[in-house]
Amino acid sequence: MTRCTFFCEKIDPGRRLIELSREVSHHVVRVHRRRSGDRIELIDGHGGRWVAEIVSISRSDGRVTVSLIEKIDAVNESLLNLVLLSALARPEKMDLLVRQTTELGVKALVFFPARMSIPMTTERATGKVKRWKKISREALCQCGRSVEPQILFVNSLAEAIGYAKEYLQKWERALKLVAFEKERNVSLKDLADEYEKVSEVCCCLGPEGGWGEDELCSLIDAGFLSIGLGPRILRYETAGVVLAGLCQYLWGDLGSKEGVGYEMSRL
């Protein structure tokens, strides 16, 4: 039986027995139909991954108690430090972008309101961040990653760029890209020949209504290169996935022949 993976925010290796939350317990027992004696995997979002055995399932509230068996050293994080800045779009499209870019190894995802974005209050955006983190954690469990990406909302494009400057270790040397549907002279294929070794990339994805001229100028002034993604106009969520996927293929681990690597260590 394939071991299913579940997110557990607080895992203390010093404690052999851990009681899972009601939500996680529900997924373990009701969704994945696991029983006492079955083994599962737990991740904490900070790089920790453990094999655990189900010890008991409470009859009163359904809470699952597990015993940590061994720690797994997973080699599955891309060496490419990839940050995606994204203008706000329709909620279902942003949900999809979060899920799929998490699978593609994005390290940080920053949402901001652009001129042509759908309006969203700060209060509503805060609630969205909680939802995006939940979606991202589900994607972590599915794709085998052990480190959850940073996800946040800021109030402007300038703040998004400012966050990226602080997050990336070497902003000046990082490759900075903005997807622009009217760009016909430069593509990622062109840049691949010029930039053979890249360790950090910051991509910027515009709103469904397109970039304003002042916004594009601000990005260019900040060192971003305007690139096209082909002869067809892509949907917001498609463009984000293509951009992240191609960056991982060209400079990350998406083109690697190696699968996810694991090393076990007894607790």
From TrEMBL:
Q: Does this UniProt record's set of keywords contain Cytoplasm?
A: yes
Using the record's annotation, list all stretches that form the Ribosomal RNA small subunit methyltransferase E methyltransferase domain. 78-247
Subcellular location(s) per record = Cytoplasm
Answer whether the UniProt record assigns the keyword Cytoplasm to this protein: yes
Keywords from the UniProt entry = Cytoplasm, Methyltransferase, rRNA processing, S-adenosyl-L-methionine, Transferase
Q: Which Gene3D superfamilies match?
A: 3.40.1280.10
> Which InterPro entries does the record associate with it?
Alpha/beta_knot_MTases, PUA-like_sf, RsmE, RsmE_MTase_dom, RsmE_PUA-like, tRNA_m1G_MTases_N
Ribosomal RNA small subunit methyltransferase E PUA-like domain ranges (all copies)? 21-60
Reactions catalysed according to its record: uridine(1498) in 16S rRNA + S-adenosyl-L-methionine = N(3)-methyluridine(1498) in 16S rRNA + S-adenosyl-L-homocysteine + H(+)
Summarizing the function annotation, the protein's role is: Specifically methylates the N3 position of the uracil ring of uridine 1498 (m3U1498) in 16S rRNA. Acts on the fully assembled 30S ribosomal subunit.
**What protein is this chain from?**
Ribosomal RNA small subunit methyltransferase E
